[in-house]
Amino acid sequence: MSNSPVAVITGTSTGFGYDTARLLAAAGLRVYGTMRDVAGRNAEPARALGALGVRVIELDVTDQASVDRGAAAILGEAGRVDVLVNNAGTAHFGTTEAFTVESFERQYATNVTGPFRLSRAFLPGMRERRKGLVVFVSSVVGRFVVPFTGVYTSSKFAIEGLAESLSYELRPFGVDVAIVEPGAYATNIFNAIVTPDDAERLASYGDVAKTIDALGEALGANAGQPIEVAEAIAALVAMPAGTRPLRTPVPGDTPATAINHAVEPIQRGVLEAYGLGSFLPQQAATA
């Protein structure tokens, strides 16, 4: 069995996941890239990644049985997982009230429950070996809010809280947690935006709801290249254990950067006040 570190990356059919799989494979890691519909609509990216040495695994993060099968296949073949990159995600953008509860739950199933499932699948082995890294791909809007992104933004706020809590709980076991916070990037997420599904409720907002159109144009016009986020993830993987920042906004100078630096000392103070200072990192936790 190879001694190369083993990495699992979700959502590798496009964007951040695809580029991260390429970079980590090129860096010598044994990479497992997961995606849905490997034999159908994602057959081409699956083939391309396979040609680069990435082992492609069929996996749907919203389906517990699929996660169980995928995790069993990976662990059965590789024996361990050293790096988990929770990247798979979708975006529900539009008037918040006009999403049905069912649509809201689908957003959380992918963006929050999915990463939780994958983390539970691989954390026991990491804790047992007392080493490992879990990366959560969040968003800058996991730290600040703009209108008409409430469903998506709240899911990213949720993943920030989940990941930060895990970072404290896993530190005694030598397992690192890192949160990557991308800004607007030219990924397939813009081509697959989920819009409100309650037409009557949406119509009741009138012209106010049209504001989302201008927001979408602004985001698209300023979108960067996904490789920047993949490079940030690869840099975190390459860092020595225990030295990785908890949060890494990409690019580095965003409103989230200022928020992270402002909140960090407050968060440290809260834990210290509750007698939980031993769970805090010694170095700065924010990039």
Q: How much of the sequence is in beta strands?
A: 5-15%
Any idea what the shape is?
A: globular
**DSSP helical segment count:** 9
Relevant CATH superfamily: NAD(P)-binding Rossmann-like Domain
Domain count, please report it: 1
Helix fraction, binned, reads 40-55%
Low-confidence stretches: none
The number of strands is: 7
Strand order of the largest sheet: 3-2-1-4-5-6-7
What does this protein structure show overall?
- This protein has 287 residues and is α/β, with parallel strands linked by helices.
- The chain has one domain: NAD(P)-binding Rossmann-like Domain (Rossmann fold), CATH 3.40.50.
- It is 46% helix and 13% strand.
- The chain is built from 9 helices and 7 strands.
- The chain has a 7-stranded parallel beta sheet, with helices on both faces.
- Helix 1 packs across helix 8 (227-238), helix 3 runs parallel beside helix 4 and helix 4 (101-129) packs parallel to helix 5 (150-170).
- The longest helix has 29 residues, at 101-129.
- 42% of the residues are buried.
Summarize the structure.
With 287 residues, the protein is α/β, with parallel strands linked by helices. The protein contains nine helices and seven strands. 42% of the residues are buried.
